[in-house]
Design brief:
Helix content is about 70%, strand content about 0%. The protein is mainly α.
């Protein structure tokens, strides 16, 4: 699992972007839980994040959790992303893995909000 070496304050605009990603991932988790992972392939659009498209394709193709994690982590490392973009990528990776493990969407929501220190 990737770890962030330092903690960074997240600006409001960055947080809004991350919250949008979290909300999208929770909706995807709800759909996958209700209709199955194959349903997700039908709702991924051209505008979606490349990590999300790849992650969902891996799930639909039946990749193992280890394979999914390794491939997505390698994409993060080679993207050289920082700040908000890195955080969005980490949220997507954790979400895809959780969807693959059939997490309860409410549990996933708590898990993802922890990235923003938004647990109340």
């Amino acid at each position: 699992m990737l770890k962030l070496d330092t903690r960074k304050h997240i600006e409001c605009t960055e947080k809004a972007s991350c919250l949008a990603t979290i909300n999208k991932m929770i909706k995807l988790a709800q759909l996958a839980r209700q209709f199955g992972v194959l349903e997700l392939e039908n709702i991924i659009t051209e505008n979606d994040h490349f990590m999300l498209k790849i992650g969902i394709a891996l799930l639909v193709d039946g990749a193992s959790p280890k394979q999914v994690q390794e491939i997505l982590n390698n994409l993060i490392v080679t993207s050289f992303a920082t700040g908000e973009e890195l955080l969005n990528q980490l949220i997507i990776v954790q979400s895809v893995l959780a969807i693959q493990e059939n997490y309860n969407p409410r549990v996933l929501e708590t898990h993802l909000y922890a990235f923003l220190n938004e647990l109340n």
